[in-house]
Amino acid sequence: RSLARTAASAKSHLSRRCYSVESAPERKVAVLGAAGGIGQPLALLMKLNPLVSNLALYDIAGTPGVAADVSHVNTRSEVTGYVGEDQLGKALEGSDVVIIPAGVPRKPGMTRDDLFNINAGIVKSLCTAIAKYCPNALVNMISNPVNSTVPIAAEVFKKAGTYNEKKLFGVTTLDVVRAKTFFAGKAKVPVSEVDLPVVGGHAGITILPLFSQATPKANALLSESDIQALTKRTQDGGTEVVEAKAGKGSATLSMAYAGALFADACLKGLNGVPDVVECSFVQSSITELPFFASKVRLGKQGVEEVLGLGPLSDYEKQGLENLKPELKASIEKGIKFANEN
Ligand code: NAI
């Protein structure tokens, strides 16, 4: 027994050493839209991440101030601000991960699709630059509508000859974060222990939380109507924030947290940490749709494996069928835009 304990302690010492900050490889992370509502707290959270050695903050305005401010935090990474299109190349060069929260957010009464006309063009031009300056980077797409901006990015990369489906991610982590919080409250279980997948896409009914797979099991008995209410609240979580902010934008702080969580998972995967699994909207063959959010195992090349949906309740099966036409249309809209503009 004591031998086993010694071996276990040696192993944990070794793994601590392997992933210690001192031996963590150099990693450059670029944030595009870094002066925005999401960009600023996200820049701060990435500055706190010991896996980052170089943090590039890019926006069309305001980044010198954000970068000067964040750079004073006494953590590992060096921070540089880049402003305006002629500095975009420098911001991107050598990046391992590029996070994109650039573009306009929703106001009350707007759907994510209403943002399409402005954000599609922004995403297209940023992805054109990524293809040129850091074609091997993992791209974390936050800009909405994610259901369309990810297919736009894929088309831009295909045209440039740099597309690698393992390296393009729609960030749906905030849906998972919300589902976990709402489930913990209703099921009376500790929120820090909750795990559950959210699949489909990132808008309205395309957001499908799989509460039937939630762990730990609920302490309070959840009825069918409780599950339906939790599902609806997760799908409308973004709108809840948009309405509470009453015209001042959408989720920024919780989104920055979720974006930082997902980027950290990407960095861990790149660094060879085993069994890093997060939900993300990626190229997928688990349904008939070309892009779909599900659990994904992250590795040294990006996506290591797109995991299946697992067993679904009848309610979830119905939700899956209901979301497909809308998700399909949003994907096709993105592809069409990229090819016509
Ligand atoms: P914001 O308006 O506060 O910030 C956007 C920033 O993007 C601004 O600083 C702006 O100057 C910058 N920007 C505009 N065009 C640019 C360009 N061509 N290159 C670089 N930067 C550019 O908006 P906020 O609240 O930060 O939201 C950003 C995006 O994130 C929106 O599209 C929003 O819908 C989306 N979002 C996504 C979520 C998700 O779960 N994936 C959740 C919440 C928001």
Automatic annotation (TrEMBL):
- Tell me which EC number(s) this protein carries: 1.1.1.37
Q: Does the keyword Transit peptide apply?
A: yes
Family that this chain belongs to: Belongs to the LDH/MDH superfamily. MDH type 1 family.
Reactions the enzyme catalyzes: (S)-malate + NAD(+) = oxaloacetate + NADH + H(+)
Q: How does it assemble?
A: Homodimer.
Binding residues for NAD(+), per the UniProt record?
G33, A34, A35, G36, G37, I38, G39, D59, N119, I142, S143, N144, M255
Lactate/malate dehydrogenase N-terminal domain span:
28-170
GO biological process terms on file:
malate metabolic process; tricarboxylic acid cycle
User: What top-tier enzyme class does this entry carry?
Assistant: oxidoreductase
One GO CC annotation: mitochondrial matrix
One of the entry's Gene Ontology molecular-function terms is: L-malate dehydrogenase (NAD+) activity
CDD domains according to UniProt: MDH_glyoxysomal_mitochondrial
Q: Where in the cell is it found?
A: Mitochondrion matrix
Per the record's keyword annotation, is Chloroplast included, yes or no? no
Q: Which residues bind substrate?
A: R106, R112, N144, R178
Q: Which UniProt keywords apply?
A: Mitochondrion, NAD, Oxidoreductase, Transit peptide, Tricarboxylic acid cycle
Q: Which residues form the Lactate/malate dehydrogenase C-terminal domain?
A: 172-337
Q: Which residues form the active site?
A: H202 (proton acceptor)
Name of the protein in its database record: Malate dehydrogenase
Q: Which domain of life is it from?
A: Eukaryota
Q: Which organism is it from?
A: Aristolochia fimbriata
Q: Matching InterPro entries, A to Z?
A: L-lactate/malate_DH (IPR001557), Lactate/malate_DH_C (IPR022383), Lactate/malate_DH_N (IPR001236), Lactate_DH/Glyco_Ohase_4_C (IPR015955), Malate_DH_AS (IPR001252), Malate_DH_type1 (IPR010097), NAD(P)-bd_dom_sf (IPR036291)
